[in-house]
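Cross-posting from the chemistry board since nobody answered there.

I work mostly on the small-molecule side, so proteins are not my area. We synthesized coenzyme A and want a rough idea of how it might sit in this target. Sequence and SMILES are below. Is it possible to get a predicted 3D structure of the two together?
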Amino acid sequence: MSSEQTAHKVSVDLMQRTDLPEILAIERVSFPSPWTEGMFLDELRIPQAQKWVVKIQIDGKSLIGAYIVFWLVADEAHLHNLAVRKEFRRHGLAYNLLQLMKQTAAQMGIAKRTLEVRASNQPAIGLYRKCGFVIKGRRPKYYTDTNEDALIMWADG
Ligand SMILES: CC(C)(COP(=O)(O)OP(=O)(O)OC[C@H]1O[C@@H](n2cnc3c(N)ncnc32)[C@H](O)[C@@H]1OP(=O)(O)O)[C@@H](O)C(=O)NCCC(=O)NCCS
């Protein structure tokens, strides 16, 4: 997505099983403990799980630029996964996927949204603040891989 490159077609589609190899590659460079194929397959089977991918047409190829998984449960939306391919970061893809989460939840009459984030993940915390989330709690040493705390963030409305 450099400035020399021109007009990319961007679409948001339902996540498919065939997207998983690309998604797993993004997972591996994005998280200390990436989700496995089995975890994504479970999400694909669960009706209350919303799973969307951003596809970008670039140089005649379609690439997955980003994806989101969230659940709509009772009167709350829970973010479960969100990542952006490294070369497409800082172009608003994650912001737009969180807007999609907000709008999808609103269509079901759901305003409250929540997530957990590693306390050291400043890019994600900055993103969530921009989307109206505020820190409401902390789970000490929640992430056993790094012994890191989780911050619990909420947005409403
Ligand atoms: C966090 C992540 C999803 C952000 O995706 P993105 O598409 O680059 O984010 P956006 O371009 O939509 O950024 C929106 C806002 O988030 C904040 N932000 C995003 N990346 C940031 C960074 N590296 N440093 C500081 N703030 C950042 C900024 O406020 C930004 O607004 P601005 O560009 O107007 O300053 C991406 O860096 C990523 O995939 N990280 C690895 C996976 C991850 O941590 N997922 C979240 C798990 S809880």
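Reply from a structural biologist on the board:
Welcome over. Reading the output above for you: The beta strands are 9-14, 49-58, 61-73, 76-84, 112-118, 134-143, 148-156. Residues 9-156 form a domain with the Aminopeptidase fold (CATH 3.40.630.30). Happy to explain the token format if needed.
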